[in-house]
């Protein structure tokens, strides 16, 4: 089998360089056509939950970093590196939340990954013996499961322009 490359005529038919746009029927827009209407509340809620998780990671990372620098932990280097790591990890849900609010289809993947990563953390908190850690685990599990349900909802998929196997 030999693969054929598109001819120059094909490229000229699909892209008009002087007009800076594709030919009729092809769009270079990244926002789906359905984005003209109001943003679904499910999508806004999922973005809010992802942003909440990101902000919690930033707060936890900042606390660890400050305590590593100013406090007296057993291993200051470990506390500082843990704080920097949490702040870096916060970028994933924060960027996903921004993308969800702007209706970018790529943002659904990082948002789902964030929720899946939060579930084992919630399980670990639930199995701990600290008095404050168990309610934190319950809250994290509730947020992660709620966000997952909202992110896989068909209305959210339509708002993001994601087509399922039935729509292809």
Short description:
This protein is mostly helical and about 170 residues long. The protein contains seven helices and two strands; from the N terminus they run αββαααααα. A two-stranded antiparallel sheet has the order 1-2.
Notes on the structure:
The longest helix has 30 residues, at 41-70. The chain contains seven helices and two strands. The protein has a two-stranded antiparallel ribbon with strand order 1-2. Helix content is 64%, strand content 2%. A hairpin with a 4-residue loop joins strand 1 (15-16) and strand 2.
Q: Which features would summarize this protein structure in a list?
A:
mainly alpha, 168 residues, globular
Instruction: Provide the residue-averaged pLDDT.
Output: 84
Biggest sheet: strand arrangement: 1-2
Tell me the span between the first and last alpha carbons.
Answer: 26 Å
Structural class: mainly alpha
Number of helices in the DSSP assignment = 7
What order do the helices and strands follow?
Answer: HEEHHHHHH
| Most strands sheet | 2 strands, antiparallel
Indicate the low-confidence ranges by residue numbers. Answer: none
The proportion of residues in beta strands is under 5%
Shape summary? globular
**Tally of DSSP β-strands:** 2
What's the gyration radius in Å?
A: 22 Å
Helix content: 55-70%
